[in-house]
Write a structure and sequence with these properties.
Oligomer: single chain
Order of helices and strands: HHHH
Helix content: 55-70%
Distance between the termini: 97 Å
């Protein structure tokens, strides 16, 4: 390889390195199940303190559970 080709390849390599700078990863760090539960409990406590009503989806799921628990079974009547 002659001297001119060597310089061209070296400058191209340096230009590529300048172009490809390191960026912060977009993948979030792992959060343990316990930490997620603590964060959820804290969010719910803050929502309760501020007087926010639960969302429609949460309200409907709570109502469904209450309806299921309130229904009498056929075996109790017999």
């Amino acid at each position: 390889m002659n001297k001119k080709q060597k310089m061209i390849k070296l400058t191209a390599k340096r230009a590529k390195a300048r172009k490809n700078k390191h960026t912060a990863p977009t993948i979030k760090k792992y959060v343990s199940k316990g930490d997620r539960a603590k964060a959820l409990a804290q969010e719910q406590a803050e929502a309760a303190l501020s007087g926010n009503k639960p969302s429609d989806a949460e309200q409907s799921s709570v109502e469904e559970v209450q309806e299921i628990q309130a229904e009498p079974t056929d075996t109790e009547k017999a």
